Predict the 3D structure of the following.
Amino acid sequence: MKLTIGKKLTIGFLSVSVLLAGISILSFLSIKNIDESYSDLVDRRAVIVRHAMNIELDASREISSLRSVLLDEQGAADTLVETISKLDDHVNALEKLVIREELKAKIKELEVKNEDFKRESNEVIKLMEINPEEAKKYSVDIVMPIAREIRGIAEEMAIEQTVHMDEGSANSSKLVKSISFIVLTLSIIAVGLAVLIGFIMTRILTKPILALVEGASHIASGDLTQEDIIVKNKDETSVLANSFNKMKEQLRLLIGEVSADAEQVASTSEELSASAEQTSNATEQITAAIQDVALGSEQQVTNAVEASQSVAEISRGMNQAAISIQHVAELSSVANEKAIAGNEVVIQTVEQINLVQQSVTETGVVVNFLGEKSIEIGQIVELITQISDQTNLLALNAAIEAARAGEEGRGFSVVADEVRKLAEQSGKAAEQIGQLIQEIQTEASKAVQSMDYGSSVVEKGIQLVHETGKAFKDIVHSFEQVSADAQEVSAIVEQVNSSSQSMVTMIEQVAQIAEQSAGNTENIAASAEEQNASMEEISSSAEALSQMAISLQEVISKFRV
C-alpha cells in the first residue's frame, strides 16, 4: 500500500486527535458525574437537612406555644396553629425531595405525629376552658411527648443526611483525584505520541529532501554529471526525486540545444541587422505615401460635412414643405366640407325656388281667373245700370201717369218715387262697382305682369342656382383633387425627407469612415515611424543579440554535461 505524505500526516495527527478526543470525552463525563453528585449534595440533601432542622425547630416551637396556651397568654392559640401549619409545609416539602423508602416512612410518621399533635392540642385548648389543671396534666403526659418525638425524628433525619453529605463530598474528592490522574496520564501519553510521530515524520521527510538539496547544489554549480537520486519511500518524495532526475536530464539536453542555438543566433543576428536596414528604407517610403492618403481623407471629411449640412438644409425645407402641404390639405378638407354644405344649400334653394315658381304660377292662374270674373261682373254691373235706367224711366212714367190720375194715383206716385230713388241708388252703386271692377282689373293686369316678370326672374334664378350647384360640384371635385394631390405630395415629401435623412446618415457614415480612415492613416503613419524606429532598435538589438550569443556560449561552457 502506498502511503503518501498527506496520509502519513493524517494518520499521525488523527491518532493524536483520537487520544485527545478520548481525554476530552472522559473529562466531560467525569465532570458531568461530579456535577450530578454535587447537585445532589447541594440541591437535594442540603435542602433535606434544612427542612429537617426547620421541623425540629417547629417542634420546639409547638411545645413553647402549647406552654403559652397553658399559661393562657393572649394569641397563643393562633401561634400554635400557625406553627403546626408551618411544620406541615416542611413535611410536605421533604416528601417531594426524599428518594429512599426508609426516609419516606419517616416522613409519613412525621405527618401522623403532627396530625396527632394537632388533634391533641385542640383537646387541650378545649380543656383549658373547662379544667385548666387537667389540661396542663394532659399536655405534659400526652401532647408534649408527641412534639418531642417529632423533634427526635427530624433530628435523626438531619444527622443522617449530614453523614450522607460528608460521604458524598469525600466520594467527589476521590473521583476528582482519580479523574485528574487519568487525564494527566493520557495527556502525557498524547504528548509523547505526538513527539514520537513528529520525530518519525521528520526522519521520513528530511532524508530524501536533504538528498534533493545536495543534488540541487551540484546543478547550481554547473555539474550535471552526478548520479540519479534514489528514494525508497513510496510517497511524494519519491515522485519528487524522479521529477528532479528528469529535470536534470532535461537541463543536460537543454544546455546542449542552447549551445547549438547560440551559434545559430550569432549568425542570424547579422542577417537580421541587414534586413532591418532594408525594412527601414521601405518604411520611410510607406510613411510618405500614407501622409498623402491622410490629406485626401481630411479633404473627403470636409466635403462630407458640407454635403451633410446641405442635405440637412434640404431636409429642413422638406419638413417645412410637408407642414405647409399638410396645412393645405387640412384647409382643402375644410373647404371641401364647406363646399359640400353649400351644394346642399343650393339644392335646398332650388327646391324653394321651384316652390315659389309653382306658387307664382298658381297665383297667376288665380289672378287671370279673377280678371275674367271681374269682366263678367262688369257686364253684370252694366246690366244692373241698364235695369236701373229702365227702372228710373219706368218710375218717371209711373209718376206722370199718377199725376194724370189725380187723387187716385197719389199712392202710386209715392211708390213710383220710391222706385225712382231705388233706381238712382242702384245706378250709383253700379257705377261705384264699375269703378272698383275697373281698378281690380287694372291691378290684376299689373299683378299678372308682375307675376310674369317674377316667373321669368325665378326661371333665371333657377338657371343660376343650377349653374351655382354645378360650380359647387366642380369646387368639391377640385377640393377633393387638391386634397388627394396634397396627400400625395405630402407622402412624396415624407419619402424625400426620409431619403434625405438616410442620405444624411450615409454622409455622416462616410464622414465617419473618412475620419476613421484619416485617423487610421495617421496611426499607420505613426506605426510606420514606430516601425522605422523599431527597425533601428532591431538593428541595434541584432548587434546586442550577437554579443549575447557570444556571452551565452561562454556561460554554457561552464556546464559539464
The chain is about 95% helix and 0% strand. The radius of gyration is 77 Å. The first helix runs from residue 5 to 70.
